[in-house]
Design a protein that fits this description.
The chain has about 475 residues and is α/β, with parallel strands linked by helices. It has 3 domains: about 90 residues, Rossmann fold; about 220 residues, UDP-N-acetylmuramoyl-L-alanine:D-glutamate ligase; about 140 residues, Mur ligase, C-terminal domain (Protein-Tyrosine Phosphatase, Chain A), CATH 3.90.190. It has 15 helices and 23 strands. The chain has a 9-stranded mixed beta sheet with strand order 7-8-6-9-10-11-12-13-14, with helices on both faces. Helix 8 packs across helix 9. The longest helix has 16 residues. The mean pLDDT is about 95.
């Protein structure tokens, strides 16, 4: 744990007692702050008390004595309406920050030159963050991996010489981290998402851009430039005098990194050189992973790795669970868990990576549904629809893709496996890539993905692949 000493002797409130909130409260207390915690959920408050923290209903608290409110990223800051704790903080002039901000202030106070990599984007940020950390570790560096990827930032090992922090940072977390100044800031892409929390795509894109635009002096912004929002961001960051490494998987660049089939190239000074070839690396299959890899390579090189170290790390990258994760084979049939695909743009990345697809989709729909995926419909042999989106998706697919409403994931797996087994394709793929949030049937995408894995593994004759990835 990283003790937060920058609020020593001060009274500070923590609202939102999920894992990151609890760790933030404990890190503040360990650093000498007077911490009071609260949550709208009574069970969360009870867990905090059991952990030795002081809980108090903040609606009855003396806000004039508070130095700051540490807000969990899942608590609404602006949209659809500010949470009551946010309103109380604003009324009394109390600063509102998050756990990433606590980390940044402690870094500035304790070891300001400790390298920090921060990664954001609508899609691919978890894989890219994990890949950067893997490249560093495989090259013998001390890399700490955390943030939005699952390990709260303050639960990481304390600052030490030579230690590098690699953080996945969501738009919610950026909004609560005004002093975030990474050594390397990675902005992968921006597509429509989380508008219920940010109001407009313009607001959402501006928050994402902030992470790369505010790199520390001498730092590097790595920006994927294959959408209008990130292209404009890269121009603005460069115009501000910051170092920008552009990455594209759509077209060659005169300067920067780009994909040429499975090869990652670097252009500059009138010439191009091969950095790495992703062919045969199963965990980096697909055009979207070429973008992830290109940005990770750019970040690793900016941190001082040489290309031989990068190539070695790429070859041994295991990938992440629930992100286009091959889990099993049943004869010729391959089962792929892409439960992390919670919107259409993310699902497109999986659909573009396979040819003969038996697609399990649905859940709680996002704005726009799956209409944007029409270009991938010819790859889909049949769709098996679950959850709240089933009827809507069936109407979109009508006359274009054969489909059935399975309702539950277990029924969808059984039906898709049956039909895939009868396929004459060389490698039929049963793909869970829902293009939806999970909250209608599961508490999160991880639980949904594990339910898919369990349903597949329960089938007789299944050849298990490495599901620990």
């Amino acid at each position: 744990m990283i003790p937060v000493t920058t609020f020593a002797g001060k009274r500070i409130a923590v609202f939102g007692l999920g894992r990151s909130g609890l760790v933030a409260a404990q890190a503040l207390a360990e650093g000498g702050a007077q911490v009071v915690v609260y949550d709208d959920d009574e069970k969360s408050v009870a867990r905090a008390k059991a952990a030795g923290l002081t809980a108090q209903d903040l609606r009855a608290s003396d806000w004039s004595s508070l130095a700051a409110l540490v807000l969990a990223p899942g608590v609404p800051l602006t949209h659809p309406r500010p949470h009551w704790s946010v309103l109380l903080a604003r009324q009394t002039g109390v600063e509102i920050i998050g756990d990433i901000e606590l980390f940044c202030r402690e870094r500035a106070a304790v070891m300001a030159r400790c390298p920090l990599v921060a990664v954001t984007g609508t899609n691919g940020k978890s894989t890219t963050t994990a890949l950067i950390a893997h490249l560093l570790k495989s090259a013998g560096r001390d890399a700490q991996l955390g943030g939005n990827i699952g390990v709260p930032v303050l639960a990481l090992a304390p600052f030490a010489p030579g230690r590098i922090y690699v953080l996945e940072v969501s738009s919610y977390q950026i909004d609560l981290a005004p002093s975030l100044r990474p050594s390397v800031g990675v902005l992968l892409n921006v597509t429509e998402d989380h508008l219920d929390r940010h109001g407009t795509i313009e607001n959402y894109a501006a928050i994402k851009e902030r992470l790369a635009a505010r790199i520390e002096s001498g730092g590097t912004a790595v920006v994927g430039i294959d959408d209008e929002w990130t292209r404009a961001a890269a121009r603005r960051i460069a115009d501000a005098g910051r170092r920008v490494e552009c990455v594209s998987v759509r077209s060659p660049l005169g300067e920067g990194l780009y994909a040429e089939n499975s090869r990652i190239m670097r252009a500059g000074k009138g010439r191009s050189e091969l950095l790495a070839d992703l062919a045969g690396i199963a965990s980096l299959r697909g055009l979207h992973n070429a973008q992830n890899a290109g940005c990770a390579i750019a970040a690793a090189l900016a941190l001082g790795l040489d290309i031989a170290e990068v190539r070695k790390g790429l070859a041994t990258f295991p990938g992440l669970a629930h992100r286009m994760q091959p889990i099993a084979r049943w004869g010729r049939v391959l089962f792929v868990n892409d439960s992390k695909a919670t919107n259409a743009d993310s699902a497109a990345r999986a659909l573009s990576s396979f040819q003969d697809i038996f697609w399990i989709a649905g859940g709680r729909p996002k704005t726009g549904g799956i209409t944007s995926l029409a270009g991938y419909f010819p790859r889909i042999r049949k769709a098996y629809l679950i959850g709240e989106a089933a009827e809507e998706f069936a109407r979109t697919l009508d006359g274009k893709v054969a489909c059935e409403i399975s309702v539950t994931l277990e029924r969808a797996v059984a039906a898709a496996a049956r039909d895939a087994e009868a396929s004459t394709a060389a490698e039929p793929v049963v793909l869970l890539s829902p293009a939806c949030a999970s909250f209608d049937q599961y508490p999160n995408f991880e639980v949904r993905g594990q339910a898919f894995v369990d349903a597949v593994m329960a089938m007789p004759g299944i050849d298990h692949l490495d599901v620990s990835r």
